[in-house]
Specification:
This protein is α+β, with helices and mostly antiparallel strands. The protein has one domain: Glutaredoxin, CATH 3.40.30. The chain has 9 helices and 6 strands. It is globular and about 55 Å long.
Amino acid sequence: MTETRLSVDIYSDIACPWCFIGKRRFEKAVQALPFGEKIDVKWHAFQLDPSLPEHYDGSELDYLVKAKGMPEDQVAGMLQHVTAQAEAEGLSYDFEALRPANSFTALRLLALAKERGLGGEMKEALLSAHFEKGLDTGDKKTLQAIAQQVGLEATEAAEVLGGDKYADEVHNDGVRAREMGVTGVPFFIFENKYGVSGAQPTEVFEQALSQVWKEIGGESLRMMATPSTDGEACGPEGCN
């Protein structure tokens, strides 16, 4: 008899503050569920700003004000809000130290890590490097060091960082997401059927996962419960 397992596809960017918060809330839900060990997570790329240079000369505040055309006081308030939300999940965001960078190379490295069974570890390391440690995630030497810390083979990581391997995978992930109507991240898809948008509260993830689990286990399910509103997320125009 085949063991029942629940698949979750998560679209996100390593430069998305709500993606890290959503990851934590989702993980807490998984840990709280009796079938948590039977949930299989696959990470997918969704690059928010392909036009961002590898090395942006300025702060996150500068970037959002200038690149997104947002008022400075609005951006400052947004960063304060997201920092408080992150802290509630045990994360220590440091937007003053954060170094805005194009995420494409980091997402290619993540694609390699996924193939080597280290996708979750690499996703965590990249998000932490970007939002908590003030590391330049557009810098190849920095990414090489992260790859080795995670457990990737140094030569293989260097080959990816020195070329364009996995570029198609990153691009295709974004195309598939947009074809499904995804406009902001994080975005969670359960069993290739049900979508949950944004960094929803942990209890929303618990409820949704539990109902899908009942469905794939053959138990009756009247209707998939969905949040009344989208969770906080980031899109090409900015974060909310």
